[in-house]
């Protein structure tokens, strides 16, 4: 999970929601095992990286849409 979370931050923010969902499932599985499965810290770090990457993805898409709207409004004013 940590690797997927880091990749979602560095290379492709589209992996962010995947890291978020998979991290949540893995964290729930670790919590349900009553301590038999370790690695909760690494999974939690990947989960948080997935959340951050998803937020960055949403912000990037909002800025893209805003740029397109501003460009269309600006070009129609001529």
Keywords:
81% helix, 3 helices, 78 residues, mainly alpha
The number of helical segments is: 3
Q: Any idea what the radius of gyration is?
A: 18 Å
Biggest sheet statistics:
none
Q: Tell me the strand percentage band.
A: under 5%
Number of strands: 0
What do these coordinates show?
This protein has 78 residues and is mainly α. It has helices at 2-10, 16-32, 40-76. The protein starts with a helix and ends with a helix. The model has no long low-confidence stretch (mean pLDDT 89).
Give the topology, please.
Elements (H helix, E strand, L loop, with lengths): L1 H9 L5 H17 L7 H37 L2
Nutshell version of this structure?
The protein is mainly α and 78 residues long.
């Amino acid at each position: 999970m940590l690797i997927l979370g880091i990749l979602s931050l560095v290379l492709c923010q589209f992996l962010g929601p995947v890291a978020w969902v998979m991290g949540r499932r893995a964290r729930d599985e670790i919590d349900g095992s009553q301590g038999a499965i370790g690695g909760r810290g690494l999974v939690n770090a990947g989960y948080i990286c997935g959340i951050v990457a998803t937020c960055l993805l949403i912000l990037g898409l909002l800025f893209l849409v805003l740029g397109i709207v501003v460009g269309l409004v600006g070009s129609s004013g001529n």
